[in-house]
Specification:
The structure is a single chain. This protein has 390 residues and is α+β, with helices and mostly antiparallel strands. The chain contains 15 helices and twelve strands. Strands 1, 3, 4, 5, 6, 7, 8, 9, 11 and 12 form a ten-stranded mixed beta sheet that branches. A hairpin with a 5-residue loop joins strand 3 and strand 4. 39% of the residues are buried.
């Protein structure tokens, strides 16, 4: 029988104790997996949101820039509006390459389903450079460009005349179908800016302006130019890269706290493994003496108990990773409700690199936790061990 097989057999002698020990390691590894997966998912999601938006600066009405960024990206009803006359000042500000006016409004039907309407002009194509669509952009009154998700859910086809959901008495024609973007755009209905202002009774008003710079390296100067124009005091100029950096820093502070909790959990898991093996050494003292008497060396005994600690921790690592993945959707919903900004991308998912790192971490915890019990077992002499009662 090999050392590995003997270690497995010994661990199976006390199934309840082994199960509790494995559970401690599994909970710690599940927390570690969730933390690492969230960190990678959040950073990737924020970068994806910024790339899909296509803008460097967001010009919004006075208020909280965090809320404004979230509304502009994910869609909602705006609490206040910009005067459309500010658009010309934004467009003529030094450093501005493209300024696309937007009027966004969200409505809810009787079933509670949200429909987001976005009024735009042709400048939107200069920002959404990753967009691909069949048909055309809205050009005439009543033209619509529909996101892939809402078109699929409602069964709309190119050229079809439809009733606007949540807007009684208004109809439109699907002139374009937006290909899947992977973001909130897939659920939006785009129309001409003038149509949106008329339908929602806000003539001469905008919800926000998306600004793409001619030179992104001169972001700070462009922001100063926009804030210094005559309408600068009436609008909020939000550099998106700075905003997302600030949000990421806030989330990083949370990750530090989570990391401390994970470190404590790993220490407790390792202490559990060490304690269980120390108890096993006491219980198997005579057995150790017998093995020493028939020729087992101190390194053999050391490796036997050390291998048992590694195996228990490795099993806990596998179970913990699987547990974290199985509960990822529930944990993600909980996190989204508490984050200042949550990208639409998946925040927690299975990644082989993260799973491999967690398994290595579990083995490392087991290796360290098994040193003391293995050393205690290897130090027992055959005579002292055989004299021990029970």
């Amino acid at each position: 029988m090999t050392r590995s097989e003997l270690a497995i057999k010994n661990a199976a002698r006390r199934p309840l104790r082994t199960a509790v020990t494995v559970s401690g390691v599994a909970i710690a590894i599940a927390a570690l997996f969730t933390l690492l997966s969230f960190q990678r998912g959040y950073q990737s999601g924020v970068q994806g949101e910024l790339s899909r938006l296509g803008a460097h600066i967001l010009v919004v009405p006075k208020g909280c820039p965090y809320d404004a960024a979230s509304i502009a990206l994910h869609g909602a009803r705006w609490p206040c509006y910009l005067k459309a006359e500010y658009l010309e000042q934004v467009r003529t500000a030094p450093g501005v390459g493209t300024a696309a006016p937007v009027f966004m409004n969200a409505l809810y039907d009787t079933a509670g389903e949200q429909t987001v309407y976005v009024g735009v002009d042709r400048d939107i194509a200069g920002l959404k450079r990753s967009w691909r669509w069949s048909g055309t952009l809205p050009q005439q009154e009543g033209d619509l460009l529909v996101g892939s998700d809402i078109a699929s859910r409602r069964g709309w086809a190119l050229g079809e005349s439809i009733d606007l959901p949540g807007v009684p008495g208004h109809r439109g024609t699907v002139r374009g179908l937006l290909e899947t973007t992977g973001g909130a755009d897939d659920g939006f209905i785009y129309m001409r800016l003038a149509d949106a202002q008329r339908v929602f009774e806000h003539p001469g008003e905008l919800t926000h302006i998306l600004v793409r710079l001619s030179d992104s390296d001169r972001l700070d100067q462009a922001v100063m130019n926009l804030r210094g124009c005559s309408a600068g005091l009436e609008m909020n100029v939000v550099p998106l890269t700075h905003l997302f950096k600030t949000i990421s820093n806030l989330v990083s502070s949370t990750r530090l706290l989570m990391g401390a909790i994970v470190a404590i959990a790993l220490l407790l898991g390792g202490a559990g493994v060490s304690n269980a093996l120390l108890m096993s050494v006491v219980e198997r003292t005579r057995e150790i003496g017998t093995m020493r008497a028939i020729g087992a060396s101190r390194p053999d005994i050391f490796r036997l108990f050390w291998m048992e600690a590694i195996q228990v921790s490795a099993v806990g690592g596998v179970i913990g990773s699987a547990l974290a993945y199985a509960s990822s959707r529930a944990v993600e919903l909980w996190l989204r409700a508490r984050l200042p900004f949550a990208p639409t991308d998946v925040l927690l998912g299975w990644e082989w690199g993260v799973a491999g790192g967690c398994l290595v971490g579990a083995i490392l915890v087991g290796s360290i936790a098994g040193l003391l019990p293995a050393w205690r077992a290897s130090c027992l002499t055959p005579i002292d061990a055989m004299r021990t009662q029970g």
